[in-house]
From TrEMBL:
The chain crosses the membrane at residues 737-757. It comes from Sphingobacterium tenebrionis. The keyword Secreted does not apply. This is Triple tyrosine motif-containing protein. Residues 759-821 form a coiled coil. The keyword Coiled coil applies. Gene3D superfamilies: Immunoglobulins (2.60.40.10), Winged helix-like DNA-binding domain superfamily/Winged helix DNA-binding domain (1.10.10.10), YVTN repeat-like/Quinoprotein amine dehydrogenase (2.130.10.10). InterPro entries: FN3_dom, Ig-like_fold, Reg_prop, Sig_transdc_resp-reg_C-effctor, WD40/YVTN_repeat-like_dom_sf, WH-like_DNA-bd_sf, Y_Y_Y. SUPFAM superfamilies: C-terminal effector domain of the bipartite response regulators (SSF46894), Calcium-dependent phosphotriesterase (SSF63829). Residues 676-734 form the Two component regulator three Y domain. Pfam families: Reg_prop, Y_Y_Y. Keywords: Coiled coil, Membrane, Phosphoprotein, Transmembrane, Transmembrane helix.
């Protein structure tokens, strides 16, 4: 046996010892978890059930082998799609299965891999096997018996032989401890001994009764269950006698089909017609679970008990789990007649429920006597029953329609004031106060319980009353808190005083409670206390801080002197106030009740220190405080690892994953079965440093993981805070191909080659650079010399230009002088002409016209002599090269006189000077200037002289 299996065996032994002596409650019904066909996605019928050492559930289904790991159902069809009838598991973990014409075993590999080995293939008479169904699989040490109604196929050490009944057909085979029993038809029950079938001495007593189950009983006896004839006991010597029980009539009538031994000498029998009956060793009915109180179907095909002592039921239509080892049992009102339970009380051996439908009653014989609770409506109690109280030995009912007393199961109205919410005894008196819809009522117990009066001064709803001093009380509804002071005798109120200083504005007031000998006020913002010195409310900060999420609980219900129930919108916590110690709070053990209670109307009846009743919205739950012993949560199992890069591809043995497929899904499960789901916490070392938050999701996806080594760790926690050990797996994401070892070697070789090639190329480039450097130096020297030559040439050009400018200036001066000489000559000629006209001869006579004409002709010839102009034009062209050519080319319409005018204007001569040169009047010059502008097509804003200077 391996260390692992040895540990599991010790663990199971510890569990069995820890629950030994714990009896299944006989009142209420355990929680039934239904697994429907749509949930497990296979056939209706489940003929066999088996629980593996690691807690997995295996079912022989009509469509194959069903496996449940606590999180997910998986179906493994048989190779020939055979329907399975039986399943069993050996100590090595092999899952043996048998069905229609097929038997063999499945082995579970790494991470969910299942491999099937067919044993029926080695059978020679395959035709006979094809017509056989394997109904039972019995495992005794190294022998496995595949049992059909015609024979048993015995598998041992890799070979198969046959066990026959000397020509008789079999019914079923049974295993009790190390003994194997087979029922032959018609000769009866036989025991296998030394590979031979030996008839039990008293077999005739059971002849024809069809034995369906054989179970170990105390004093080494065997409990035998027959189909329609009840139970029998067989001694070690084979003596058989009937075992009459209180369950006989039901077991005979509804036909036993199978059985299983539970803890503490209790037995479960599945029937064909009426579900499961659980009996104790005295034959008393402990529980009856059927379709009426939780099962999907009344036909029980198989039974099995898991490691938590839960009872699994394979049905004709589905699979159910019955939490018989749970501390919570239920009375569920499937018909809807009872409704939501607001209040309850045990009174005169009866249990009363006050609901939104009325007052209901049933006999109560405690939890040690089996009784099927049957509630009946008290006549005329229809309506909402808010409160039930034992006042002076009378059952008082606070009803929507008033206050009643129940006498001989008949309601007697004692007050018509509607809506009695709360009954509070007044200390050291015969009076009781009643909170109702319209204020406070006064009740008395002297001489009998009666309603005295409705107190004046207040007509608002009163939900809660708390006595602080002899005549001082606190009252509240959801909107406000008031302090009430009574006059002596409590017949009237002395003072109503609204108190709100220190309370949060618009806060909802849930109630006033005595918590650890302190009056506390429960609000949406936490608990408050009243400071009588400051006369105001103060937040109870110390308590609120220790209560965690229950700091704003809406109800406080006492359990004992230092224990309380705290309720926050149907979420329940049990709080303990140890002397001089930190508050202890358990807020997870009742998670399965969350959402099943009416918010703000939650009710808990503390029957005694070991039993509590929780009012639900469809009945009630019973909590057995000492049942069961807490068990260790099994550590999670990695059920599957999937590569989800493309399609969902399972990974089994090789967890060295290619880099291109670095998207993984890891699913896990802790085979722990409870009405409250298991939560998980995980961390991926190498990727994250911190554990995740607790979550019910049982898988985790990791995408785009970098290459490297990883360790995935996961642990589980139950609803009551028990934490499992850690499960871990290692896997590796391979480096990308370009970072593989061959590629790295190639990179090294390439680097070496590149180094030497680079060195050689560097040396070559260095020489080339040196050569280019010399060439560049020479080229730079040539460029520098060329640049110096160019600069010298520019300097020479500048000197030449300066000389030319000087020469031009000289020529311009010469032109100007020449022009001025012509002007001077023309003026002289004009003066001469003028003087001649005034000249007289010696006789004082003026010259004759003929004389004047000759002289004027000479003057005119001098005026029109072009030699001066030609000389001027030549000099002008030398100074202003191509001026006339450009004018003639651009403006061909210009005549010689226009050209002369242009030349004179370029020399910036005045109109008077130009007139003298042209021998015309100044007015004539202006006219010619005007005509010249027209020919040059100058705009009016353009200066003519500037235009000519720019040419």
């Amino acid at each position: 046996m391996s260390i692992k299996s040895g540990f599991i065996g010790f663990f199971l032994l510890f569990i069995s010892v820890s629950i030994l002596g714990q009896n299944i409650p006989r009142v209420g019904t355990p929680f039934v978890q239904q697994y429907t066909k749509s949930m497990y996605a296979a056939g209706n019928q489940n003929w066999g059930l088996a629980i593996s050492h690691d807690g997995f559930v295996y079912a022989a289904n009509t469509e194959g082998l069903l496996v449940f790991d606590g999180q997910e159902w998986k179906l493994f069809p048989m190779k020939n799609h055979a329907s399975l009838r039986s399943v069993n598991i050996d100590k090595e973990g092999r899952v043996f299965v048998g069905g229609s014409g097929e038997f063999g075993y499945w082995t579970r590999g790494s991470y969910g891999k299942m491999n099937y080995t067919s044993l029926s293939d080695s059978i020679k008479d395959k035709e006979t096997l094809r017509n056989d169904d394997i109904w039972r699989i019995l495992i005794q040490e190294d022998q496995v018996f595949f049992h059909s109604f015609s024979k048993s196929y015995r598998y041992q050490k890799g070979s198969i032989d046959l066990l026959r009944a000397q020509g008789e057909p079999f019914l079923f085979g049974h295993q009790v401890g190390y003994n194997l029993y087979f029922e032959q038809i018609p000769s009866g029950l036989h025991r296998l001994s030394n590979n031979r079938l030996e008839r039990i001495p008293d077999a005739a007593k059971l002849q024809g009764m069809n034995i369906l189950s054989m179970l170990p009983f105390h004093d080494h006896q065997t409990l035998i269950a027959t189909a329609n004839h009840g139970l029998f006991l067989m001694s070690p010597t084979g003596s058989i006698k009937p075992f009459p029980t209180a369950a006989d009539d039901a077991l005979k009538r509804y036909q036993i089909n199978n059985g299983v031994k539970l803890f503490a000498d209790q037995y479960a029998f599945g029937t064909i017609q009426n579900g499961v009956y659980i009996v104790n060793k005295s034959g008393e009915i402990v529980q009856h679970i059927s379709k009426n109180n939780g099962l999907q179907n009344n036909t029980v095909l198989s039974l099995a008990v898991d490691k938590q002592s839960n009872l699994w039921v394979g049905l004709d239509n589905g699979i159910d789990r019955i939490d018989i080892n749970s501390p919570l049992y239920y009375y569920s009102d499937f018909t809807g007649n009872i409704g939501t339970v607001y209040s309850s009380i045990l009174f005169n051996n009866k249990i009363y429920l006050g609901t939104n439908q009325g007052l209901f009653v049933s006999d109560w014989k405690g939890v040690s006597s089996y009784n099927s609770l049957k509630f009946q409506l008290i006549p005329n109690s229809q309506g909402q029953v808010w409160q039930l109280a034992n006042i002076a030995g009378k059952l008082v009912i606070g009803h929507n329609n008033g206050t009643f007393i129940l006498e001989d199961q008949v309601l007697k109205k004692i007050s018509s004031v509607t809506g009695a919410w709360k009954f509070l005894p007044v200390a050291n008196s015969n009076y009781w106060l009643q909170g109702n819809y319209t204020g406070i009522g006064l009740m008395t117990t002297d001489p009998t319980v009666s309603f005295v009066k409705q107190l004046e001064g207040r007509n608002d709803l009163t939900r809660d009353i708390y006595q602080e001093q002899a005549e001082t009380f606190w009252i509240s509804n959801q909107q406000q808190v008031q302090q009430v002071k009574f006059n002596p005798g409590y017949q009237s109120v002395k003072e109503w005083k609204t108190m709100d200083k220190g309370l949060p504005k618009n806060a909802r007031i849930h109630g006033i409670y005595n918590l650890a000998n302190n009056a506390v006020f429960a609000t949406d913002s936490g608990f408050y206390r009243f400071d009588h010195v400051l006369n105001e409310f103060k937040a109870y900060a110390e308590l609120n801080g220790q209560l965690g999420s229950f700091y704003n609980a809406n109800k406080v219900i006492p359990i004992s002197n230092n224990q309380y129930w705290l309720i926050k919108k149907s979420h329940i916590a049990r709080v303990e106030f140890p002397a001089d110690e930190q508050i202890r709070i358990d807020s997870s053990s009742w998670n399965s009740l969350k959402g099943r209670m009416m918010n703000n109307y939650e009710h808990i009846l503390q029957v005694n220190s070991e039993l509590s009743l929780f009012g639900l919205d469809n009945g009630f739950a019973l909590y057995f405080n000492k049942f069961p012993v807490k068990q260790q949560i099994p550590k999670p199992i990695i059920t599957n690892i999937w590569n989800i890069t493309k399609d969902q591809k399972p990974l089994y043995d090789d967890l060295s994953i290619p880099n291109a497929e670095n998207n993984l899904r890891i699913s896990f499960a802790s085979p722990w079965y409870s009405s409250s789901p298991i939560r998980y916490q995980y961390v991926l070392e190498g990727y994250t440093d911190d554990w995740s938050n607790w979550d019910v999701v049982a898988y985790r996806d990791f995408t785009n993981l970098p290459f490297g080594n990883y360790t995935f760790k996961v642990r589980a926690i139950s609803a009551n805070g028990i934490q499992s050990d850690i499960t871990s797996i290692n896997f590796r994401i391979k480096a990308p191909w370009y970072l593989s070892w061959p590629m790295i070697l190639l990179y090294v070789l390439a680097a070496i080659f590149l180094f030497f090639w680079s060195k050689k190329a560097y040396e070559k480039r260095l020489k080339e650079d040196q050569r280019k450097l010399k060439e560049n130096m020479l080229a730079d020297q040539e460029k520098r010399l060329a640049r110096e030559a160019e600069e010298n040439e520019k300097k020479l050009m500048a000197i030449k230009n300066e000389q030319l400018e000087q020469e031009l200036a000289i020529k311009n001066r010469e032109l100007a002088n020449s022009a001025m000489n012509i002007v001077y000559k023309n003026e002289m000629l004009n003066n001469l002409h003028h003087e001649l006209t005034n000249l007289n001869d010696s006789n004082g006579n003026k010259l004759s016209n003929e004389q004047l004409r000759k002289v004027n002709k000479l003057i005119d010839e001098a005026h029109s002599d072009d030699r001066d102009w030609d000389l001027f034009e030549k000099s002008f062209n030398e100074a202003h090269e191509n001026f006339f050519k450009k004018l003639k080319a651009d403006y061909p319409s210009l005549v010689p006189n226009d050209l002369k005018l242009c030349a004179y204007l370029r020399l910036n001569m005045s109109s008077k000077e130009i007139a003298s040169l042209l021998n015309i009047s100044t007015r004539g010059v202006e006219i010619r200037r005007y005509r010249l502008r027209k020919k040059l097509e100058l705009p009016t804003n353009k200066n003519l002289t500037e235009f000519l200077l720019e040419l």
